[in-house]
Prior knowledge:
This protein is an all-alpha fold. The protein has helices spanning 8-28, 35-41, 45-52, 56-67, 71-84.
Amino acid sequence: MSEGHLPPDIAVRLVALEQQVAHLYAELGLVAPSMTEAVLAAIGGEAQQLVRDGRRAEAIREVMVAEGVSQAAAIARVDAFSRTLGR
């Protein structure tokens, strides 16, 4: 499987989940956050600065400690933030 492509069954499930979340936001009268807002909320300011400084490994460690998440989750968050910077 190439990067960025999901298996068809997972892609279908993801679309269904996104539709359900959108429905919940609408029913509750809430505005869904933009992808950028969601990414920024998932990584603290110190880790954001480490990414901006090109210190990815340190940013991952910072997210693991500050947010109490696994290494895989921290990598996903740091990489998502990096993409918002065009990296």
